[in-house]
Amino acid sequence: MSEFSSTEKAALGSGADFWTTKSVGSVPALTLTDGPHGVRKQTGATDHLGLAGSEPATCFPPAVGLGQSWDTELIRRVGEALGREARGLDVDVLLGPGVNIKRDPRCGRNFEYFSEDPFVTGRLGAAWVSGVQSIGVGTSLKHFALNNAEDDRMRSNSDVDPRPIREIYLRAFAHIIRTANPWTVMCSYNRINGTYAAENRWLLTDLLRGEWGYDGVVVSDWGAVADRVRAVAAGLDLEMPGPGDRTDAQVVDAVRNGTLDEAAVDRSARAVRELAERAAAGRANRSVVDFDLHHRLAREAASRSIVLLKNNGDLLPLSPERSVAVVGSFAHDPRYQGGGSSHVNPTRLDVPVDEIRAAGGTVTYAQGFSTDGSPVDTADAIAAAADADAAVLFLGLAAAQESEGFDRDDIELPADQVELLTAILAVQPRTVVVLAHGGVLRLGSIAAAPAILDGALLGQAGGGAIADVLFGAVNPSGRLTETVPVRLQDTPAYLNFPNENSHIRYGEGIFVGYRWYDARDIEIAYPFGHGLSYTTFEYSDLSVASDDPGVTGVVAGLTVTNTGSRAGRDIVQVYTSKPDSRVGRPPRELTGFATTRGLEPGESQIISIAIDRNDLAYWDTRVDRWIVEPGEYGVEVGASSRDIRLTTTVEIAGDEVRLAIDENSTLGEVLANPAAAQALASRFEDNPLTSFDDALGVDMARMMASIPLGRLAGFGMRDEDIAAIIAAARTD
Ligand code: BGC
C-alpha cells in the first residue's frame, strides 16, 4: 500500500457521505444503498430511516414473504433483477441480505429476515447473494452478528453461549460466506458477550477471515462504530456513513503513536481498493432495466410466497362467477413492505381489490376498519359480506406497528379487526382471511375462519398475486419459515426478550423456533414448514444412499406424487436427528429441502436431496470445533416439522474427539484415552484394572468415572503417578 500516504489509507476506510465512499488516488468512490428487497437510491435528502424519498425501483417481497417460497432458483432470479436495477442506478453494493435468525416473534425487524431456522436462511440467502452478484453488483451480508432484537440495538449486549452462536446464529452467515462470497459483510450495532460487533476481533478477524477465509470488506452498520481505532484493530475495513475527517485523523494518530498497528490500516485500505476494483469490473455490465418484466417477476415471487394456512371444505379457490365481498382497508391500501431503512419507492403498486375485480366476478368493497384510529362504521362491511357468495377479509398490522428500531410488545392483531372478523363470520361462513404482517401474529379467534392465506409482506405486486391464488390461477406452494405459536408465552425467548438493562440473555440456547416447540412438545397453531395446496402430494420410496458418508454426507431419495386433481408444486423437507447424542439436541433439525417442478395430477417426480455431513455436526465446546458424532441418525421426510411422512435411519462414521488429559480430566475421560488408560491400569498392579465395570460393578464405576484424575491424590495416589498418566496421554 506504499502508493498511499497514511492519511489516504485512513480515508479509504470511511465514507464520504451517507451512501458513498471517498475517491482516493486511483481508487474511485463507491455507492452503497439499501436493500434488501428493492433498490433505495436516494438522490435528494439522505437518511437511513426511510424517511426521505428515493428513486422508483421494483419492490420485491421482503425476506419474510420471499422466504416462504423456499425456492432458491426463484430467489436467484429476484437477486439478478435487483442487481440489474442497482446497476441501472449506478449502485455498486446493495445492502442485503439480512440473515439474522428470528429468535423471537416480537423483533421489530423480522420482516427483513428469512426464518427461525439457519439452514433455510443460509440456502435462501446464498441464492440472493449469487443472483445480485452475478450482475456485477456487490451485496452486504447483514447484520453480523447476533442482532436479533431492535430495542436498544446500538448498545444492547447479546449474552450467548458458544453452541447457539455457532449452531444457530452464525450457521447461515458461514454458509453464505463459503458458497456465495458476498463482496461485503455488515457488522451489527450490538455487543456480543461484552464487545461491540464492530470491535470484535474474534468475530471479524479470527472467525470471519481466519476460520471462514473471507477476503471481502467488513463495513459497519450505519453509525455502529463507537471507537474507530479499536474497530480497525479488530478487523473493520469501512466505517459508514461519512463521519467526516474526525475518525480518519484518529487512525492516523494511533498509527503514529504506536497504539494501532499500521498493518491493520493497510489491510482495510487494501480490502476497500479491491472492492473498488470488483465494482469497476461490475460497472462494465451496463444493463437496461425492464420494469414491466420486473413487476411480473415480483408478482410471480409474491404468488410463490403466499402460504395457504387453512382451507376447510375446499373453500378456495373461489369461482370467478360468484360474487365476492372484499373487506378491509389493506385491500385498498395494501401493507406490502416493512418500515425503516429498507423502505422502497415502488415503480407501481397492485391494489388487491382492483386485481380481484380484474379476475372476474361481482366485487363489492368495504373498508371495515382503519389503521389510523379513525372510526369506521362496520355496518357496510357486514352487510356486503352477508349479501355476497363469499367474503375476503384483509387483516394485518399497519406499517407503524412494526419497524426497524423498535420491537413489538405483543403478537396480537388489532382488536377492532378481530371483532370485525367475528361479526363477518356470523353472517358469512364462506369467509377467507388474507393476512399482511412482518412478524408472526397470534391467530386466536382468526383461526375460526375456514380459509386463511398468509401473505406476510408481498411487495408491490402482492395484490395481483393474492388474486392469482384466490381464484386458482396459481396453486399456492409457500411454506412457513417460522412457527406460529398458540400464545406468546409459549415462545422460546418469552422471558428473555428484548433486554434487561441492555443485556439480552439467550437463555433458550440452541432451542430456537421449532427446535424449542418440538423439544418441549408444545402445542402450536401452525408448524414451521407448513403450507397447504389446492392439490395433495404423497411421498414414497424413501431411500438413503450413503456412498461415502464419512466424507460428504448422505443423499435422501424419494418419490413425490401429485395425488389431487390440480397441477401444483410441492416443497419437500428433510429433518435429521441424533437421538442418543451426548449433548442436548432438538428432536429434529432441517438439513435439506427441495421444490418439485409443477406436477400434473397423477404425475410423480423422483427427488434427491443431499444432506451435507457438516449439517449433522454440533459445536463441541470441549475442543472448540464441529463434531459429527458417530452412529445412527434419524432421517425424516415431511411436509412440515409436525407432518413427518417417511422416516429411516442412516449410519454415519463420526469424528474422533481426542480430549487433552490433565488433572481435571475425569477417570472416564482418562479411560477413553488408550495410552492414559494403560498408564492408569498399570498403577493398580495388585488389582489389574481392565475396566471399571469389572472391578467395581456398574454403579460404582459410574461414580468413579466422574472423579477428576488429580483428586486421586486425596485417595492415596502419588503425584508422580498422576503426572505419569498425564504424560502417557500426550504420547498417544
Ligand atoms: C440498518 C442497515 C442499513 C443501514 C443503512 C441501518 O440503520 O440497520 O440495515 O443497511 O442503516 O441504511
From TrEMBL:
<dbReference type="InterPro" id="IPR019800">
    <property type="entry name" value="Glyco_hydro_3_AS"/>
</dbReference>
<dbReference type="InterPro" id="IPR050288">
    <property type="entry name" value="Cellulose_deg_GH3"/>
</dbReference>
<keyword id="KW-0378">Hydrolase</keyword>
<keyword id="KW-0119">Carbohydrate metabolism</keyword>
<dbReference type="InterPro" id="IPR002772">
    <property type="entry name" value="Glyco_hydro_3_C"/>
</dbReference>
<dbReference type="InterPro" id="IPR017853">
    <property type="entry name" value="GH"/>
</dbReference>
<keyword id="KW-0326">Glycosidase</keyword>
<dbReference type="Pfam" id="PF01915">
    <property type="entry name" value="Glyco_hydro_3_C"/>
</dbReference>
<dbReference type="InterPro" id="IPR013783">
    <property type="entry name" value="Ig-like_fold"/>
</dbReference>
<protein>
    <recommendedName>
        <fullName>Exo-alpha-(1-&gt;6)-L-arabinopyranosidase</fullName>
    </recommendedName>
</protein>
<dbReference type="Pfam" id="PF14310">
    <property type="entry name" value="Fn3-like"/>
</dbReference>
<dbReference type="InterPro" id="IPR036881">
    <property type="entry name" value="Glyco_hydro_3_C_sf"/>
</dbReference>
<dbReference type="InterPro" id="IPR001764">
    <property type="entry name" value="Glyco_hydro_3_N"/>
</dbReference>
<comment type="function">
    <text>Catalyzes the hydrolysis of a non-reducing terminal alpha-L-arabinopyranosidic linkage in ginsenoside Rb2 (alpha-L-arabinopyranosyl-(1-&gt;6)-alpha-D-glucopyranosyl) to release alpha-D-glucopyranosyl (Rd). It is not able to hydrolyze alpha-L-arabinofuranosyl-(1-&gt;6)-alpha-D-glucopyranosyl (Rc).</text>
</comment>
<feature type="domain" description="Fibronectin type III-like">
    <location>
        <begin position="570"/>
        <end position="641"/>
    </location>
</feature>
<dbReference type="GO" id="GO:0005975">
    <property type="term" value="P:carbohydrate metabolic process"/>
</dbReference>
<comment type="similarity">
    <text>Belongs to the glycosyl hydrolase 3 family.</text>
</comment>
<dbReference type="Pfam" id="PF00933">
    <property type="entry name" value="Glyco_hydro_3"/>
</dbReference>
<dbReference type="GO" id="GO:0008422">
    <property type="term" value="F:beta-glucosidase activity"/>
</dbReference>
<dbReference type="InterPro" id="IPR026891">
    <property type="entry name" value="Fn3-like"/>
</dbReference>
<dbReference type="InterPro" id="IPR036962">
    <property type="entry name" value="Glyco_hydro_3_N_sf"/>
</dbReference>
